[in-house]
């Protein structure tokens, strides 16, 4: 274990190897054989796992009884009570204690679109609660409006497309084609779960991504099968390896290709993400030696104490411990680079948010300027309409607005900091 400077609580790091342990000997998972025949869909297996997941079924029953908005408010109150019970400050108070002014939005340089919650997986840590059972999907008129706003901004340098599994949305390829036609220099990101490359109908996905020079940011929380399948579902690791090989085959991660393939690590439990610089060499060595896979960079993200991971923390009676871990490892150096400063998050229905986490907590960017206290109080009252892509004529209209913050924001400032682009400090 490692203790960060100036903190009391130890930061538990994952074992040096992500490989399965069997006694005192590591068993390395065999390389997945190249698949010549068309893969069957992962969705039926995921649906079977969902039906057998008693914890998830209990959550679905609670949603049916109380509604998603009520459960979201109860989750927020649980985080707040955990801090109060430990005598720890709220996030706004913590920022004030370090001399920070209230956070305000800067010029938008990244437009992040969550184009739907439908996914072929149902990961245990998923902060958007995606699964094959979700039906929320962005429609073409919303996608068109996002492109119009982006085209009218000189500051947006990155279009970041996420989900769910964004590739399974009908608007994904439309957005990629149109965005690339708008600018040859625009960075386009596909946040990919890798297994989607093996889904029927996606056989040409790797070629499509390479043709449009899309940067792939792919989830792979470990380089060993047991840890990945435990967190992301049965059979996910094998299909992920196959997906990575497909991407490598068209040039992704290969020196000099210009096709960027980054992998994303997130912890498998209630501990902070380790150093990217220390974990990346292990990933590169294991994936190259065992599977012949190459990639560019590893991004390490903390688990946010919201949605499915929050459900896990509450069920295991560790929410207070995890919140204390985040607070006591607060890193002021991570604050200036918080993604909520320059990233604008757009939901599948066109509503605007400071970040993808606020999006899932139903904390939209509000039209009329309010104090930070009023904004936090507003979330407790009920669902707020907030601004949509049709309410603004320019992305500049949200510049200078107060960023909406709450206790979950500690997840982005703990340890080395955490954002959609990895560590921030």
- Roughly how many Å is the radius of gyration? 21 Å
Number of helices: 15
> Helicity range of the residues?
25-40%
Largest sheet: 8 strands, mixed
**Order of the strands making up the biggest sheet:** 8-7-6-5-4-3-9-10
In terms of topology, how is this protein built?
Blueprint: E1 20-22, E2 25-27, H1 43-52, H2 54-66, H3 68-86, H4 91-97, E3 110-114, H5 140-151, E4 158-162, H6 172-182, E5 187-192, H7 205-211, E6 215-219, H8 225-232, H9 236-249, E7 261-265, H10 276-291, E8 297-300, H11 307-315, H12 319-328, E9 343-346, E10 352-353, H13 356-360, H14 372-381, H15 410-413
Parallel strand pairs: 3-4, 3-9, 4-5, 5-6, 6-7, 7-8
Antiparallel strand pairs: 1-2, 9-10
Helix pairs in contact: 2-3, 3-12, 5-6
Characterization of the model:
This protein has 425 residues and is an alpha/beta fold. 36% of the residues lie in helices and 10% in strands. Strands 8-7-6-5-4-3-9-10 form an eight-stranded mixed sheet. A two-stranded antiparallel sheet has the order 1-2. Strand 1 and strand 2 form a beta hairpin. The two termini are 20 Å apart.
